[in-house]
Fold each of these.
Amino acid sequence: MAQTSGGVRNIKVFRYDPQQGGEGHFDSYVLNIQDETTTTILDVLLRIQREQDPTLSFRFACRVNMCGSCGMVINGKEGLACKTNVSHIPQGKEVTIRPLNHFPVIKDLVVDMEPFFKKYEEALPFYEPREETTEPAVIRPGSRERQDIGMATDCIACGCCVSSCTMCHYHEGYAGPAALNRAFTLLADSRDGLFEERLDRVLASCYNCRTEFNCTEVCPKRISGTRAIKYIQRLALKHIKAKPETIEAEQPAVAQPSCASEMAGSMAGNMAGNMDRRTFISQVGVGLLGTCLALGVGGVVGAAFVGPTRARTPRLWVPAASLSSIPVGDVTTIKINYETKNGLYTQQVAERVLVSRTGDEIICFKASCTHLGCMVKWDGNAGRFRCACHGGAFDRNGKVIAGPPPKPLDRYPFRVDSDHLLVEVG
Amino acid sequence: MVSKVKADLLIIGMGAAAQMAALYAHEINPELDILIVTKALKGKGGCSRMVQGGFNVVLTPRDSHEKHLMDTLKGGQYINDQYLARTLVEQATPTIKEMETKFGCFFDRNPDGTIHQKAFAGQSFDRTVHKADLTGIEIISRLTEQVMKRGFPVLQECRAVELLLDGPGEIVTGALLLDMRRGEFIVAEAAATLVATGGGPTHYRFHAPGPEKSVDGIAMLYRAGVIMKDMEMLQFHPTGLIVPGSVVAGALLEEGLRGAGAHLFNGSGERYMLNYAPEVGERATRDVVSRSSYLEMMAGRACPEGGVQIDASHLGAGFVLKTFPGMAERCRQFNYDLARGRVPVSPTAHFFMGGAVIDTGGRSTLEKLFVAGEDAGGVHGANRLGGNGICDSCVYGRQAGKALGKYLSGGNRSIKETRRGQVEEFMARLEAPLQRSRGANPFELRKAIQELNWNKVGVARKEPELSGALSEIEDIAEAVETAGVTGGAVYNMMYNTYLDIRSMIDATRIVAFSARLREETRGAHFRQDFPEQRDDYGLFNIFLKRSDDGRPVAEKKPVVFKYKSLEECRKYKK
């Protein structure tokens, strides 16, 4: 908690009157607030309406974080007016309140939520019993499915996640985090009978997610839309694995872990019928990322794919460069090439090693982001490693300093052999 | 120009009772053209969503419907409609099961995977089904999705303002709606109408229901001439959070806290409930705890914040945080630590036990009009048990839905003609404040109504305050007639507040009117001038309706002890 006392605050509120039209504008109000720690933004709006401007419109119902009616953008971040206290905004700073993004404004802070409900409904958000029964299912609270679902069914459909998601703006067909979260909770629910239909309906949408984590950050119920979306993608992989007939469509493997080829194959099987080639390829591409995440997370799928492959691959020392060619005090990118045995075939691998050399210390980093495996580059000006995909950043020692990466950059074991730097791969 | 819509079944409200009714009417008769209208967004309004604790239901052979019925009658201090109460407890069992198996609700489980039931006050068995401590979200989210699935049209942010009647005023033909987004009236006519808006006594300074609610259902029913009962029975929940100056004030800390063993302390640090109810202490029913707290506050033993304090810290911080995460979070937002300290609470207006007279199918005393949930009366008698509220909404929504499905399958699927001129009369009156730029301010009038009720028709009542309230409310009503509203037609919240206070005024009239007529203390109705429960006098229900001159007229009728005699009820010990 910040300060306990109050003071005078400037409040800027977005105004739009449909009878006047136009782009809307901000009106400013000055409010003397006795105790900011017990004053919510909803209190602020009610006071402005009661004391200064009765024409101000906003939406609310329960006032205790249970109905999701009062979602709005408060100082740039989505939140519920009833759950945001004035004291959550830095002391003395102006409070700016505007309507949720991506929705048509009806008046002032009131938006038309119909586009939200439409997307929600399209994701088949409703339970359909797998079998007719009259007795509630016996499911242990510690069961895998209930652990996975957790409190994600507590979504109150406030629309904050959708407003925060830039992809909802760019992809017209994107279902958005709330709808996908509900789909996830049903896909994970063993009682539900619409698994195939729902997965078909929402899977393609999942690939529109760019893992920005905005939805996760703003959710007033602390539900992670990102997790839900990635869960569906992993579920799809698992599902495909469980259904051998879809794997038969597999194409010759690309030089990637075996699961990726399964993904590509099954996507071809499932989706080629209703998708043009470009969409198909782009989705497979993102699918690979999803796969990598699954590996990283080490879920059921990851373990099954990675386990045996690792055991069969012998470790290999690959020469990188002569030590004298690596400048001290800088980070140098070195390409290495080597062959690796991958099941029935031999694979050519090209990788980049980021060699950081300071005084006596050498660190050899893998150039792949620990988030989703995108290529990491050294930014000499900023003195940090950057990933262009989702804004991940690492310091000189590989420690995460920004963005979604879950752990520091991976390192290669290395040795120096008569002026040659060798890194261990495999 | 007023737009018109027609349907076989018009459902007013979109809480649990309304949605259950829609789902079951459709199940019985899939042909029905069902129209739902709600004052809020889809599934977001009303009190069902705000349910925290849970749903009382008998699910194991160790418990019984008999016990649940006796707990309900004992809690209601014997004046319940026993027929309704018995249906409640018996039908609760299939209802909750169907909510899981048909609609996909998933309530908390025991370690063995069966449904968990927790302890609530006033019950002989731990029978409250729940989803952590925010049960309403699960119920309403799942029901709303089922409504979406069936594609029923929903008019959102459309509030019903008056029921429409035929010429003689005996048949309900539909309702006049206000589309709040456009500020335009809509005439909705139907072969049957269900009022399930939920009561929501927000006409008190402290109130638990969301401030968007305004007793519209009860007020509309009363104005339409429906017979209402037990309107003096208005429940105050003992543990409304105190947050000075915030609209959150009065929001609940759920009953499960007391069920789990939380203590209540007065300003002197004394566990006062041990004086008022030595045997059960804080686990006494809501009426008893609220009254005791209020008396402590009036005796000058309030805590610094003005109420009393609830303390759950001795249960262990880990237990509190795990069992009541929603409550802990709610407290934390206002710098209270529920897991480790005391939190100031006050009695808060919570629930109408009274409401429209119905039968077990939700039929009211007017033709083609059905009522379910908090708008209906009789199930709970003089006091409702925690956990019987959402149970009532779901069970009676289901009952009414089934009854409506059958009713509209017969020869009743025709729309009767609304009395000529009625719509125009209503509109002329309702639109008047929009023509006045000056006049009484609805926001201030609402505050005046809330203070009046809190002080004179509140937890403790007496004469001459009740009579005073009845005359004062008429003064306010007169001011409302001259109220003026600023702003345009679209989403005009000041105008909606004007409509809210119209309802609140009618609610005040009938609650205070009934309260005067019961000269004893029973359940939630506490008369300081008649502090004893008098079973030789008070075993009646007050039936009330609006007379032609606009004032309520009432009749007392003895309670019908249909299944359980007074002696059985009295002797029953939990």
Amino acid sequence: MGLQDDGPGPDAGADAESAPLALKILVAGGFGAGKTTLVGSVSEIRPLRTEELLSQAGELVDDTGGVGRKTTTTVAMDFGRITIRAGLSLYLFGTPGQDRFWFLWDELSQGALGAVVLADTRRLEDCFPAVDYFEHRRIPFVVAVNCFTGARRYGADEVARALDLEQGTPVVLCDARDKDSGKEVLVRLVEYAGRVHTARLLESVGPPTGPH
Amino acid sequence: MEGHWYDAEAGPLVRPYAMTGGRTRPGPHGARFDLIALVVVDRSGTDTADEALLGPEHRALLGLCRAQTQSVAELAADADLPVGVVRVLLGDLLEGGHVKVSRPVPPARLPDERILREVIEGLRAL
């Protein structure tokens, strides 16, 4: 690439290569599964919190319809950041737990690199909705089993079977409080997302049979 | 002595969308900024006279961007404003030529393999 011409033209896409790049990863799972803990252990910043007002997306949320009292409902999302290098950073978003906030998941998952589904083996069913969600939308995800002290230990394959995961979906045992363990989960996810991506590319360019 | 007549349950004293003049969507450009869209101050486009015409929330956002490149999510958290409000205010700043927004909407495809490898190596090195 040559010298960069910092011309005045409102050429929005021209500098896309050199523009800073941010990637997002979703952290999902049941209430108390350790989402914010995981975000906090790997983030270089204290987990921040953004709020979205429900009134803004009121048409998507019918729960508040018919409620007599005026309420300002906000949904909070915790997030953290990892700077890979200048101009390349990774953002982790803890998804809001309740089902009625799934419209936020839709927004969050757009363009996401992938997702981590945190599982607590004492309440494995809590992560079913997240597993379903990502499988249906073909968003690459790994299941990270947060090994709480006192909980019975299960093998990764046992968890994969119990969750009826699609073939190949990685299951990682982790300790969400531990930075190295959290890093490992993210590495596994990015590796897996890359493999899924490559497989889909091959699928799309080389149909083995059929007319063209 | 009587306590305050309002408390946290009353919600914010200024209704959030009052800061946007009641608008809940960004202006004509209309892009709904992604949470990780990155916002940088457009140094070529602004002058201080223009800035003086901006509201306090607009100026607060500009101040945050001036310190370093910020994502929409970080701006909302740091300015303590709901994301929806920040999106509208950023739309104003973009139209006024005060900021540039890179990758305002999520890309349709994953970044290439080279970037993914960089991310993996970067994570390992943390």
